[in-house]
Sequence to fold (206 residues):
Amino acid sequence: MESAGQWPADVRSVGSARASCAARGSGDSNDTDRAARAWGPCGTGHSARANRADRADRARADHDSPVVIPRNITAMKRTILTVTMCSALLLAGCGVRPPIEGRMDPYPPKQVHLDSNSLKHETAVGEPAVARDESGNLYVTVPIRSETDKELYVDYRVTFFDRNRQVLNQTGWYTKVLSPKVPDQIMVNSMSPRADDFQIDFRWAK
Fold:
């Protein structure tokens, strides 16, 4: 039989455990850690809660942390982009635009040309007459008259071509006065027997 004043061993153990828990609440960290390790009921609950909180903090930190792309991967992407752009420029002629080509003229040149519709409507031009002299030079006569009731002042010039349509010579501009309603004509001649064709241009006098 136990003597008075002494508590049973299990009662003393429970009392010690409660003392350990009280010591942890008082702020003594060293005694609290030792008591938590020595007595399971109090220390185990606190350690489990701390572990769960720590894991939750790590999960939030992993979720919030920015994704870091390694420098070698970024440099590789830049290299691929540069190569792709250079290839596109090479295929496109390095950005050089093509030359602007002229439109095809479906109308071959005639022997008589007027430079405006107003001159066309105020004059009347006949079929040119062509002849050669004894030296082979080409003579051209073009009938023309004023179709209005007023006197007209017109300029003309003549271009002679050889059989390959190469220019042999071209005159300057000459002025011709056309009387109202009166038939008239101009006459020109080449300076070489090589002349095979001609072109006469008319414009308003300047």
Observations:
- Residues 1-15, 17-33, 35-45 have pLDDT under 50 and may be disordered.
